[in-house]
């Protein structure tokens, strides 16, 4: 009986030590960056937010996020790439990646000197598609994220 308790205690301590060694996940991007982007939202009202994580690889990566919108509202989309050691490209389109003749509405490459940028929709927009493109990078960089927040008028 004593052996079972000792073994269970040791297993518990060992499990706790292993799980504790990893520590809490790092916040990406920082609270300061999120707060800065949220203050840029005014006078729009908060609708939603999304953090997209990337693990760097030797090949480029692309993720597309569909953002549904109400037709009668005007929206503001705010982004920060502050949590990325390699600068991604953020592009907003009117249609998804599989559609021919889609229109480019916004390109972060036009704002290379900034880590925060914004895009305002016109009324009568049903949805937009956010494409985040991350260039190939050394996997030793680990990971990073792009944060964006959506507000409506």
What can you tell me about this protein's structure?
There is one protein chain. The protein has helices at residues 2-22, 31-40; strands at residues 45-55, 61-68, 75-83, 89-93, 104-107, 116-120, 127-134, 143-152. The chain is 20% helix and 39% strand. The protein starts with a helix and ends with a strand. The relative contact order is 0.29. With 153 residues, it is of the alpha+beta class. It contains two helices and eight strands. The strands form two sheets. The chain has a four-stranded antiparallel sheet with strand order 1-8-3-6, covered by helices on one side. A four-stranded antiparallel sheet has the order 2-7-4-5, with no helix packed on it.
What is the end-to-end distance?
A: 67 Å
Backbone structural class: alpha+beta
Number of helices: 2
| Sheet with the most strands, sense and barrel status | 4 strands, antiparallel
Rounded mean pLDDT is 82
DSSP summary, beta strand count: 8
Low-confidence stretches: 4-26
Sequence of strands across the biggest β-sheet: 1-8-3-6
Instruction: State the shape.
Output: globular
């Amino acid at each position: 009986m004593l052996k079972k308790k000792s073994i269970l205690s040791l297993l518990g301590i060992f499990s706790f030590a292993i799980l504790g060694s990893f520590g809490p996940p790092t916040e990406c991007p920082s609270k300061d960056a999120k707060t800065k982007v949220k203050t840029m939202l005014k006078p729009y009202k908060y609708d939603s937010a999304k953090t997209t994580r990337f693990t760097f690889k030797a090949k480029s990566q692309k993720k597309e996020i569909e953002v549904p919108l109400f037709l009668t509202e005007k929206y503001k989309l705010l982004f920060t790439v502050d949590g990325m050691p390699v600068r991604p490209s953020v592009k907003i389109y009117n249609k998804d990646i599989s559609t021919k003749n889609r229109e480019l509405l916004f390109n972060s490459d036009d704002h290379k000197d900034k880590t925060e940028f914004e895009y305002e929709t016109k009324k009568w927009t049903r949805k937009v598609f956010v494409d985040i493109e991350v260039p190939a990078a050394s996997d030793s960089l680990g990971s990073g994220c792009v944060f964006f927040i959506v507000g409506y008028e």
